[in-house]
Amino acid sequence: MGSEKIKVGILGATGSVGQKFIELLVNHPWFEIAELGASERSAGKKYVDATNWIM
Questions:
Q1: With contact defined as beta carbons under 8 Å apart, do 20 and 5 qualify?
Q2: Is the pLDDT of residue 1 over 90?
Q3: 3-state secondary structure 1-55
Q4: Could you tell me which residue ranges the Semialdehyde dehydrogenase NAD-binding domain spans (predicted)?
């Protein structure tokens, strides 16, 4: 694999499964988190403000 990371998006990023994906991918050597998606109630908020950390 080359030095360029594969860009990925995570849907449901503020939920428990999305949080786990972020935890697994944030420092992954092959992947880069490029986009996060969440429900309308999280629209316009910073991720840290939209998330009740479960992990």
A1: no
A2: no
A3: CCCCCEEEEEECCCCHHHHHHHHHHCCCCCEEEEEEECCHHHCCCCHHHHCCCCC
A4: 7-51
Residues 14 and 48: their CA atoms lie apart, in Å, by 9
What dihedral do alpha carbons 25, 44, 37, 30 form, nearest 10°?
-30
Identify the pLDDT of residue 55: 58
Question: How many CB atoms lie under 10 A from the CB of residue 33?
Answer: 16
Q: Is the pLDDT of residue 17 over 80?
A: yes
Are 5 and 32 in contact, with CB atoms under 8 Å apart?
Answer: yes
pTM over 0.70: yes
Tokens of 30: 């092959």
Tokens representing 28?
């992954």
